[in-house]
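yo, Bcr/CflA family efflux transporter is done. seq:
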Amino acid sequence: MPHFQLAVLLGMTVALGPLALDAYLPAFPSISDDLGVSKADVGLTLSAYVFTLGLAQLVGGPLSDRYGRQRILLLGLAVFAAASFMVALAGSLNEMLGWRIVQGIGGAFCAVSVPAIVRDQCRGNEAARLFGMIGLVMFIAPASAPALGSALLVVSDWPAIYQALSGYALLLAVVLHFGLFRRIPARTPQQTPVRTLLTNYRLVLRHRLSMRFILLQTLAFSAMLVFITHASFIYQGALGLSNAAFSALFAANVAAMACLNLLNRRLLFHFPAVQIMRTAVRAQHGALALLVLLVVLDAPVWAVAACLVAVAGCMGAIVPNSLAGALDHFPNLGGTAAALLGATQFTVAGLISALSTRVAGEALLPIVLIMAVCSLGALLLANGAPRAVCRHAAEEEAEAAARSSGPV
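structure:
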């Protein structure tokens, strides 16, 4: 299957995450009024979704290795669609939180399947380029999500956003069944005892290089999620922008990620993925350090907004390269490695995001300081990463399997 078509289909799948995160951001005031809670409490529904989205991948990844990508992905879409419909019917914050958690389980089964499918097809710089193409397609979702949410709010109320998400998931299940899984080689699932699904995690946890990439991406993503969680306050509250300006600047952040993503794909023909990733992490930290200074000095709106665009843009070169580096060593355990990456990334980021709502409240400086601290951790990990991964993935996995106490 041509990589472009594969990237489009997998990008549509990965888009579920940004849509579920970003589409309802403009509806925070409406949800707050409808459920009789504060905007900060509504933000907990975002953190709950992200936390579950990460934790449930620990189950979905090994299951996709054992039972196949198609079964787990389509099951995830079904759960996501049902939970989205129920969120639309929620009459209280507790109901909304509960169904957002179920929605996160479905989203996790979908999210963990995508990098595993990529790892089934290719590795190394080729995998990084494919991840980049998927990211480029996926960027349409967060760019359009707030605008889509705002449009739905014009003609209806906030439950319409979740009804639209439910319909999208059902449509995607049909498209993937006929357009993807009937056209790519079927990977033979591992017929191993269920107990080994847990022991396989030790193979990934003991691999220091893969764990470095996993932790690096976790911290970089945490900085971004803190920004997304507080985006409505930053743009509309602290900077005093309108709904339309908020949507436009959010789209500009995503456009910057898309541009860096395109540049990254070209650079991968000339430089190792690790080297590009390290440069992007350094640039992101520099932009955040400048952002902190601008907030302290009460700089103009355009300067703060420009720094935020730069911070978001760097993710376009960080994510595909760190993903490829983390999964490169596990050709037979792509689902397990992807699950550990996703679980670590979303769980830690969700906790940091939830903590930021309590610590920062409605103050801009604590928000950007938390983002800067996360970026500093990513920078330290990036500076210690090797220039390139030279050893073949199969050799790494064979050595790891030999050291483990259980069968793979």
